[in-house]
Design a protein that fits this description.
Length: 487
């Protein structure tokens, strides 16, 4: 079944004049403060394209006319390809999709144990998410701690490819990492030419606040753009710590960094698909920790969606929640976050499945709970269809005062479309709930996750291709380790 698109953007936290003020402040920051870019080839290219470069300090200042020229080259619509067309994502500035969890170091397993993640967890959690109907794009939800960390991204790539046919939201560790992933993806696609026609992964480039683009990240950006691989250009600001405490100031600072990165991608290869992306949050002043579940974080994301769309760019937002177990806090934090993102028109709701403890922890149970929450949130975002049939005046006349609609043809024809059918939520009254076992949401989620892992075993790659990609991943990681040890 093709992935269904859904329109958002009903919730606006900024006025048109607010957005213009943020834009003008961003232009001032880019022109007068600039962005530090720790990669000389990028500075050379930007100088050739009209930016003012202070090479000793590695500061790039971007004039307004240069920024506009290159932002105008960034497409507002394109396709993120799955292994097969049924998993393709039609990207624009209205459709809403979800992205799975990312890069947790620990798992909360189905026996209730919090422990370091391993490669088997990555495979199992990917397979679990693959069965969730409200998950559209796959990420590597954990970074296994039982493997060498140098070159870990190659192992992530081969493991995820085995366990899903969705587009893969990948990450890199420098330019060679991108080349290695292209080689593995070409093996999956059957040839380099097939991969070029339908790149089945995208790359996230995480920029540093305040206003820094590190050498490794810029290498990845430029190598990906060179090959036309879609890019999420992401700023991860922390209001009160790495960006101004005022949310408007955070919007300005992250906007400057992201727009600079998108412009650079267009300088490398005009037309490179770019997604304006954040995983920003606040510093909780009582603990000193990052908070992704705070209401301020949801406001940052809602406003960032409007800012991205001002430039006609698709937007990715979302982050982990603060709760440490699947409890009431986890439920309300995820629900407010996902619903806020969906209603504000976040085109890609990131980290929306399974992520807890400020992105340190991935929970098997929370994956299926989050799928339920997302389903409800997307149903709300879908809104109410008003037409002659749904107004039902004819039906109201037929039933009249004192009648009922339960067995009416209109009800039978429409209820599956109008109603949302939960899989985990309890709607029984006390006695019937107790007769059914009296299990709470977490217990029901545990049972569902175990059932999915027992029954969901799709073959996403022919076994000979999967073995070849595994070998390529191991060899690529070995080279990365050797290069790191020799440098």
């Amino acid at each position: 079944m093709a992935i269904r698109s859904l329109k958002g953007g009903q919730y606006k936290v900024l006025s048109d004049s607010d957005i213009r003020d943020i834009h003008n402040a961003t232009l001032e920051v880019l022109d007068e403060v600039g962005v530090r870019i720790d990669y000389k080839p990028a500075l050379d290219l930007m100088a050739d394209c009209g930016c003012r470069i202070d090479f000793p300090s590695r500061i790039a200042r971007v004039p307004e006319h240069v920024l506009k020229k290159f932002l105008d080259m960034a497409p507002s619509s394109f396709t993120l390809c799955g292994k097969t067309p049924e998993f393709d994502i039609n990207v624009d500035t209205r459709n809403i999709y979800t992205i799975g969890g990312s890069s947790a170091l620990f798992v909360l397993d189905l026996d209730g144990c919090r422990r370091p993640a391993n490669v088997n967890d990555l495979a199992e959690l990917t397979r679990l998410q693959d069965a969730l109907e409200n998950l559209h794009i796959m990420h590597a939800i954990v970074i296994p701690q039982d493997i060498e960390q140098e070159g870990f991204d190659r192992i992530l790539f081969s493991t995820v490819m085995r366990n899903t046919s969705r587009n893969y939201y990948s990450q890199g560790m420098g330019a060679q990492s991108i080349r290695d992933q292209i080689e593995m993806a070409s093996a999956v696609s059957g040839s380099t030419e097939n991969f070029r026609k339908r790149p089945l992964f995208s790359i996230v480039v995480c920029l540093t606040s305040p206003l820094i683009q590190s050498e490794m990240r810029v290498e990845e950006l430029m190598e990906s753009a060179k090959h036309g691989i879609p890019l999420y250009i992401e700023a991860d600001a922390q209001a009160g710590a790495t960006s101004p405490i005022t949310l408007a100031g955070t919007l300005v600072q992250q906007n400057a960094n992201i727009l600079c990165g998108i412009a650079l991608a267009q300088m490398v290869n005009p037309g490179t698909p770019c997604i304006y992306a954040i995983a920003s949050g606040i510093m909780d002043m009582s603990t000193g920790n990052y908070s992704g579940g705070s209401p301020e974080t949801t406001l940052i994301h809602a406003a960032s969606a409007q800012v991205a769309h001002y430039y006609n760019l698709p937007f990715q937002g979302g982050t982990g929640i603060d709760a440490t177990i699947p409890d009431a806090q986890a439920g309300y934090e995820r629900a407010l976050q996902v619903l806020g993102c969906a209603l504000s028109g976040t085109n890609f709701i990131h980290l929306s499945v399974g992520m807890m403890e400020q992105m340190l922890l991935a929970s098997y149970e929370q994956c299926v709970i989050d799928n339920e929450i997302i389903g409800a949130a997307l149903h709300i975002a879908r809104g109410i269809e008003v037409n002659r049939d749904t107004l039902a005046v004819k039906i109201i006349k037929e039933v009249g005062p004192g009648g009922h609609y339960l067995d009416h043809e209109h009800t039978l024809r429409n209820f599956t479309e109008v109603n949302w059918f939960p899989k985990l939520t309890n709607r029984r009254k006390w006695d019937s709930w107790m007769e059914a076992g009296g299990r709470d949401m977490r217990q029901r989620a545990n049972e569902m996750a175990r059932k999915i892992l027992k029954e969901h075993h799709p073959q996403h790659l022919p076994e000979d291709v999967a073995r070849e990609v595994d070998k390529m991943a191991v060899a690529a990681q070995r080279r990365a380790i050797e290069n790191a040890n020799s440098s």
